[in-house]
Design goal:
- It is a single chain.
- By secondary structure, the chain is of the alpha+beta class.
- It contains 28 helices and 22 strands.
- The longest helix is centred in the middle third of the chain and has 42 residues.
- It is globular and about 115 Å long.
Length: about 850
């Protein structure tokens, strides 16, 4: 028999491997194998196996048994418990420093909790759709000649149809169009509703829940609509309304389905859906060429879902090929189709013509950066104060090391202490979060349509994890510093070998960074506020004072005009399609003499009273002399910029010249002085006033009254008697202009709030450092007083180091902030403020006053101390 094939009992081997220490196992197992081989030769197989088993059991002794994992875990738990108790005692002993750290972290963490809530809510958008990661929409990149390309969320009907017909690997494609809506008439009742047009594949791409009706066919036929459950219940007092009919305008529609109202975290919102084929048939009859044009991309949308094995890159390549083919038919314009995943819409780039909500990656990154800066400032506080106090705790560390504590254990102790403070701060931060949340939501009405910031279990988990991460990060450097202390030198009273303790440059750097950030916030808030005031007070080229814009809500403009003419407080009335100078723009292609040379004409349709009502300056020609008409228009009033664009000549020379706008030839009858038809951050380009009755959306009332509230009530009562369906929707022109610059208000509010938080945290840190400095130099101060130093000289001595740090922070913050605003934020603005000493030095003054009060209070207290009390033990 071959002895090599005979092995010791497997269970005995497994037993040895289970209990033996890894450091002894290899040698011990090797020796037992040698004994086994010897016994096998001398005593036989059976006896050798018995002896091997006995030897394995004999070596089961304390020095060979490895430590059980459960004992390690128990030891770690006991140590953690000990660290926790020690941390609580240390926090209780150092009440002032602990309070500064807890409050500073709590305030900054509350901002970060808001940021976490915003991020989780944004990332939750559209995830309820089945296989949302495979749902995309077509984007268009529009470029005219060599101008800067613009990114649009909308696309052309042609792009969607060719996607359906030509590109393989697409499971479903749906075409959509916005602005479906109007007054839904059911017998004698009228209900104003808004929605979208969508084709029969809408429910194949999206997972909106159909309650009643067939999702496959609900939008397949012309003149069919799907209502949301909310509107079905409101209108019919029941949900199953399939088969009911309703009128919108002059058209009758059949209700073919009831869909559950889109959830809050859907970027698509609608009250009803009209069958796209209805609009498609109408447009094909009117202008099939224009409807299917590649450049008809302003109000249409295409969404598609990929098949399981399809790569989006191949779809993008096919879209690029289609774009190239279609662009060959266009002149001077390039429109390139691409794609965007539905999960990236809320956090993607800001797009023009977006349908539904979008927050944008820029805003998200800015909020994240600001939150990080604030929490960084609080973390600096903790690090700075902890390192400053480390000398006091050096002996504690030395004693622990003498009795056997390892560097790792010291590190763990101080890390746990930082985490305890951070978790304690979280409780206060959670309370502060509930205070600042409504303030954030009320910054702008649009924010409330995107966020609710409701807490859930996942958010709470994120909050706790965030607090632990903050504790670990804030406590890392102090833990490293304290764990590196050498026991012998510390107990002898020597700790100068530690660079972070002997050299103050690190702590000074932290203070400088803190106040640099605080000063940058203060200066930024001041500049944003001045730019806002500049924008709304800039002469826009017309006078909108006391002009009230009333939305027609689908009513006849002439009837509404006659309605308000009877009110004596209304001195003038005009009609318009849009509210100018608020960012809203309508445009069309314009050509002059060269058919190959065109530009975008921004325009507003008005009546003959508008220019006088808004005090526009007609510098050549005449005003319109008739009401807007529905038939073919023939006249236009243009601005000076259009004349310069085409070198038409002087305003007087341009009168009678013809321009082609869209498909209409229009005669220039007047020229108005250039004015800001868009916001002041946009350049003045070609603009015209037209007369298209179907465009009119507003009547503009010039009020002459000292009782605004009473007049508004009278106007509202008059409207309610005229239209019982639609509410009175009116805003003063000045109010709409202010709303157009709400982004400056939001920036100013957020930055001011963060400036307040940042300077508060920095001042607390400075207070802590002032207290520490005063305590550590108390004997020096007493000796100086005994030798004749005055209180003033002592305050100067103790304060000048900190004031120098504030001066350094100012030298860094001011040029940096100036550069960011001058070369980045304001670089694209045509009309902007000049950033001068007033805007910059105001923040420096605030910082120095706060710093002087904070440090001065503590140094003065130390300077007034009685030297006899301090030196009596010396």
């Amino acid at each position: 028999m071959n002895n090599k094939s005979i092995q010791p009992p497997k269970w005995a081997n497994r037993l040895l491997e289970w209990y033996c220490k890894p450091s002894l196992l290899e040698d011990l197992q090797g020796d037992l194998y040698e004994y086994f081989e010897r016994d096998l030769k001398e005593k036989g197989k059976r006896r050798a196996r018995i002896n091997y088993t006995v030897n394995v059991l004999k070596f089961f002794k304390p020095y060979t048994i490895k430590k059980l994992e459960i004992l390690d875990q128990l030891t770690q738990f006991i140590m953690f418990k000990n660290y926790f108790k020690t941390s609580l005692r240390s926090i209780a002993r150092n009440k002032l420093f602990s309070a500064i750290n807890v409050f500073g972290l709590a305030v900054s963490m509350s901002v970060c909790l808001l940021m976490i809530s915003i991020f989780t809510e944004v990332k939750s958008y559209d995830r309820f759709h089945d296989q949302a990661e495979k749902v995309y929409r077509i984007l268009n990149t529009y470029q005219y000649l060599s101008e800067e390309p613009s990114l649009f969320a909308s696309t052309s009907i042609q792009a969607g149809k060719r996607l359906k017909e030509e590109i393989p690997g697409i499971a479903s494609t749906t075409l959509m169009r916005r602005n479906f809506g109007g007054d839904l008439k059911i017998e004698d009742q009228v209900f104003p509703l808004r929605g979208i047009w969508a084709d029969e594949d809408f429910f194949n791409v999206f997972s909106f829940e159909m309650i009643y009706g067939d999702p496959e066919s609900a939008l397949a036929e012309p003149n069919t609509i799907v209502l949301t459950d909310e509107n079905a219940e409101k209108i019919f007092k029941r949900l199953n309304v399939v088969g009911e009919t309703a009128k919108i305008g002059d058209d009758e529609y059949i209700i073919t389905g009831v869909v559950k109202k889109p959830p809050f975290n859907s970027h698509l919102k609608f009250g009803m859906i009209g069958s796209f084929i209805t609009m498609d048939n109408q447009q094909m009859q009117r202008n099939s060429k224009g409807w299917l044009s590649w450049s008809n991309m302003w109000m249409n949308y295409a969404y598609f879902k990929l098949e399981d094995n399809t790569n989006i890159a191949s779809v993008n390549d096919a879209l690029a090929r289609i774009s190239q083919e279609e662009n060959e038919k266009l002149e001077h314009t390039t429109i390139t189709a691409g794609s965007q995943n539905i999960l990236d819409i809320m956090t993607g780039p800001n797009l023009s013509n977006s349908i539904g909500n979008s927050f944008g990656s820029t805003a998200l990154w800015i909020l994240a950066a600001l939150s990080f800066i604030v929490i960084l400032s609080a973390g600096f506080n903790y690090t700075n104060l902890s390192i400053a106090r480390s000398l006091r705790r050096a002996k504690e560390v030395g004693v622990r090391k003498v009795v056997g504590a390892s560097r790792k254990q010291i590190f763990s102790q101080f890390t746990v202490e930082a985490c305890v403070i951070s978790l304690g701060s979280l409780l206060i931060a959670y309370f502060l979060f509930y205070i600042i949340k409504p303030l954030f939501l009320n910054l702008n009405p649009e924010i409330q349509t995107i966020f609710r910031l409701e807490n859930n279990t996942l958010n709470l988990l994120y909050f706790v994890l965030f607090a632990i991460v903050v504790g670990l990060c804030a406590g890392f450097i102090p833990s490293v510093v304290l764990s590196r202390l050498k026991a012998v030198q510390v107990l002898k009273g020597k700790s100068s070998n530690n660079r972070l303790l002997s050299n103050l440059s690190f702590r000074k750097a932290l203070i400088v960074i803190q106040f640099t950030l605080s000063l940058a916030f203060i200066v930024s808030a001041h500049i944003a506020y001045k730019q806002f005031n500049f924008a709304i007070s800039l002469d826009k080229g017309f006078n909108a004072e006391n002009v009230l814009n009333v939305r027609l809500e689908g009513n006849d403009p002439d009837q509404v005009k006659a309605l308000f003419e009877r009110i004596p407080e209304v001195s003038q009335i005009s009609q318009s399609s849009i509210i100018l100078s608020t960012g809203e723009r309508w445009g069309d292609d314009l050509k002059y003499e060269d058919p190959l040379d065109s530009t975008t004409l921004y325009y507003s349709s008005i009546d003959q009273y508008y220019l006088e009502n808004l005090s526009h300056d007609i510098i050549a020609g005449t005003n319109f002399n008739r009401d807007p008409v529905s038939d073919e228009e023939s006249e236009i009033i243009v601005n000076e910029a259009l004349l310069k664009r085409f070198n038409i000549g002087t305003p007087q020379e341009s009168i009678g010249k013809q321009v082609k706008v869209g498909g209409d030839m229009l005669t220039i009858i007047g020229v108005v002085k250039d004015f800001h038809y868009a916001t002041v951050d946009a350049p003045i380009e070609s603009f015209g006033f037209r007369q298209r009755k179907e465009d009119i959306q507003y009547v503009n009332l010039k009020l002459n009254t000292t009782d605004i509230i009473g007049t508004m009530k009278k106007l509202e009562a008059t409207w309610d008697d005229f239209d019982q369906v639609h509410p009175f929707n009116a805003d003063f022109y000045d109010q709409r202009i202010e709303e157009a610059y709400s982004e400056y208000v939001i920036i100013f509010t957020i930055v001011t709030f963060l400036a307040f938080i940042s300077i508060s945290i920095a001042a607390l840190g400075l207070l802590g450092m002032g207290v520490y400095t005063a305590e550590t130099r108390l004997k020096e101060i007493s000796i100086r007083k005994v030798l004749g130093a005055t209180e003033g000289s002592l305050v100067k001595l103790l304060s000048k180091g900190f004031l120098w740090l504030l001066l350094i922070a100012s030298a860094i913050a001011l040029p940096l902030t100036y550069y960011i605003f001058d070369s980045v934020i304001f670089s694209g603005l045509t009309y902007r403020i000049n950033i001068g000493p007033v805007e910059l030095l105001g923040g420096v003054l605030v910082i120095f006053i706060i710093g002087a009060l904070t440090i001065g209070s503590q140094t003065l207290k130390a300077a007034k101390a009685n030297p006899a009390q301090t030196l009596r033990s010396e």
